[in-house]
Amino acid sequence: MNSLYQKVSPAYSQAVAETECAADLRIPSARITRIKAALFAAPYSICLERPKLLARFQRSAAGRAARKEHPLVRRALALAFVLSQRTPRIYPDELIIGNMTSKRIAANYYPEGGSINILEDLFRLEKRTIPLKLTGKEKLDLALIGLTTCRDSMGARALLKPGRFGHFLDFFSAKRYFITEEAGIGHQVADYHGLVHRGLKWMDAWAANCLENCRLQNGKSLDEDQRAFYRAIRITIEGIRKMAANLARTAEKQAADPALADPRRQELLTAAAACRRVPYEPARTFLEGLQSCWLVHVALNQEDFEQGMSFGRLDQILWPLYCEDQAQGRLTPATAAEITASFQLKTCETMPIYSERIDQYFSGNGVAQGITVGGTDADGNDVTNALSGLILEAYAQIATREPALHVRVHPATPAWFLEKAVEVLQLGCGKPSFFGDTAVVPALENAGMTTTHARDYAVIGCVEMASQGRTYNSSDAALFNLPLCLELALNQGVCYGEKHFNNRLGAATPAVEQMRSFDDVAAAFRQQVEHAVAEMVKVIGWLEATYRIWRPTPINSMLTDGCLAQGRDVTWGGARYDLTSIQVTGLADTGDALYALRQLVFETRRYTLPELVRILKNDFRDHAVLQQELVHKFPKYGNGIPAVDAMTQLAADVFADAVRAHLNSRKGRYVPGIYSMTCHIGFGRRTGALPNGRRAGKRLSNGLSPADGADRQGPTAILRSAASLDSRKWANCHALNLKFDRRTVQGKSGARVLSSLLTSFFRQGGMQVQINVLDGAMLRAAKSDPKAYPGIVVRVAGYCAYFNDLQPAVQDEIIERTSHGMES
Amino acid sequence: MAWNRKKDEETAVIFSIQHFCLQDGPGIRSLIFFKGCPLRCVWCQNPESWRMDPEPAFKAHLCMNCRTCIAACPGGVLLQPDRRKKDQCRRCFTCVHACPCGAQSRFGELHSTDSILKELRPEYPYFRDSGGGVTFSGGEATLSAAFAADIAERLKAEGVHLTLETCGQFSLDTETATDGDPLVQRLLMAMDLILYDIKLFDDETHQRYCGGSNQRIKANLAALARSGGQKSRPLVWPRLPIIPGITDTWDNLGSWADFLMDLGLKHITIVPYHRLGNAKRAWLGLAPGPEFTEPSPEALQAITRFLEQKGLNCYTPGEEEWRN
Predict the structure, then answer these.
(1) Which chain A residues have a beta carbon less than 8 Å from that of B123?
(2) Which residue in A29, A416, A558, B186 could disulfide with B149, CB within 3.0 to 4.6 Å?
């Protein structure tokens, strides 16, 4: 694990970088266009192969025998069976092979996770916002699988027990928190560097060695669990090898078809040869490297679930292979870009399985398979290379929802690279997102990582953090409704709507009549947050215990530093860095609410606290004037006003401290993150009125973004507010959204604006920002429903303005203009 | 009524400070909008900039009709939220303070140089990384020359790139470009870039559409052009609004092009007309201005070609390549 990056002579990298910058690799080849068209034409579906294979295994003699085995071995045998029995499918034109599911685009059904929720939509699958296509027979199968396996989910196993049933019901009416860990842990950046350069052979040999000597590497003798762990490793590696061999055989069979054109035959044979070698053996070429990553990615998806399974720093991992191929004259940048684009298109074959009810919390249909590019080595030197740019350019060829792309920015990030990233941004897919090493690295050190390892961070999924290949981060364990804790603090732990005080949800904090100062309010708020976090940690603890028995993850473990050395699965605490992350929703709303409350009650003394609470309980119904005043006239987070931003910091600190006070059941740390998926909508529906003027049921602020319509000073002020906050406790990072219309940021001048915004933000200590370039369709939606789309900056004749501030006629014109921009 | 106490050099009426502006000079800029303008162009998009003093405005689309403003008005001059006895209004702005939803609003706040610097300083990093700075806009900043010069010099001392947007209607000794109003002179010389608005070449037409003669505008431009380009002198960059049927005649464009070429000015930005100003007139209780059609992309292309044939480099706002 030590010498991570093979040294390549700087002069050579420079030469490669220059030739790369000259060629335009953003234009898709005919092949890439065809694959993309085929993917776009494919309907979304659900793949039932995995649950069927699992059921077949349970019924088989081997499966019955496995029941007597150690849970780790039992799981490994089932996984190996699934991997080796899956039907291989190779699609036309693709250079990287290996099907994610049995269909072109489908969600895997995970009986162990929350897939059963889809049964809610069983009778209207085609009529959903995101329609799913299943035959009648498949629907029947789906219902059958759902019913026969309904007690196999982690949630059911952990919570359908006396005294825990109420927590099970929480999944159906998430209010204080949403425990996503029930569905799966996923969210991993496995050690793809070790995989590509050493192969699974290395892990297999380690396990074999320990089993043979009955000792750990450090000489201690193995206990029963450790023996089971190493056996599980060897069993699953065998399963992966069979899956690769099946693919190779299918490719060879297809290649034997005499009707096939010669170039395609050659491609299939190359792919087959690669699958005969990797992932067991180390990769020798760039293509083998990507093929190796892809096969293990598929296996990881079969093992756990689909969310946030990420590739890490592919530009660093594949760089030596890329250089070697170029030096041998067997790879041109254009071919490398085509292979990379084909690889990235493979990520479009998967999707999550959410019922429409769940979708309000996690809308967008993404699974976020992250690729991180740019950044530094262990000493802090820039390691951006030609491949960093090429990966971005390959994405420009496809411009699809997956994969998620992440760019690391640090003081020595080369200008050409930032420009290239900004050009991809201008395509309007909201990618890449940007991360500031200056803020991220200290936050990771603060979570216990060494500087060397913190500098080797890669992004999990959307924004979450790992030191790649060394971290087991249940990075999306739960989402937390912070404003609700303020509601509970102002009502003795009871939600505003509740008629009976024995329906207490939170802690029994004092009545508002007894609160004499703002500090009393803050103390009650803190107590509510601590109470809710403790509840959540308790439930997650039950789930963790269930995972250890029913859903251990040997593939993940062999690719996470620490597990092989300790002989322990990641779910048993084997990883070098073990984290559980909780994300906060409604942060800006909470900060603004605290600020307004202090002003109204304790500074200007316009209302007593009980009066204000009565108004909030009544959702401002007889106080519309006050509500408007709070919305329009009170200062808010996101405008660069230190006094208000300090309240958002206070809210963030209360949450971070409450989270960081806990350890998970693997003795790993709890860390906070600041993002909300779309939980700010779901939670918002169940949260009462807030003192910042937000009415009951309205959506909450998302991530680190200002509350809806609260930013009045434009994007630089938002960035200033965000960068001014102390992010050292936020080891799971944050999501900050900026939105522009296409014209504000198009062309060379637009690119300059964007890259200088990014440079300034990160220089000021910014941690993360994602920039959306909006199209005409979205602006049309914004016009018909302005409240749903606040804060869109558009370029009017002589200046930029908020879209919602414009007259309808002007809005129409901008929509028209933006749409034109898209066609050209 | 703080605004009409005796003005000293320390204060001016500013109606807005806007950050993240991309089309008023290079890079990311903050604009200071000064109140007061000597011209009254019929197509003006910023009618709130005309008068020197703060004035009330009513944004009907924000009003929730709570009538708080009417109850609050001490003089009883507010009859309806959108109707006031104009001549009796003492401009105390009590209605604006009382209004909960921002419908009753005020254009123009008295600012000191310190209060402006305090608002601008946090933006410096964005100026630096984008090559941007501060633009004095309006209205017409030269009407508040004492204040503007003061703040310009303080910003300059802090290394900020400065741009002035001017209509050219100010007092300057046209022979040497060094005398005239010494305050205007100080202001101009503190600038790095002057975006100089030109509209109609024919004086009579200019008086008809812009409410004033263009004699001084031309003379000032000539004087600045003669001294421009020298070291420590601002770059002078003409801008011409394209108002269909008024400023876009070949005659007008040709005359200006010849005039600029004679002065040795080689660049021009054409600013297409936009309808946005009309809503603001309603807020201020002014009669709606004339509606023009917006120039088509084809028309703009033709104008660009025409000006470039005359030898000028022609740009649209935000796309300029800033150089001599």
Answers:
(1) 716, 720
(2) B186
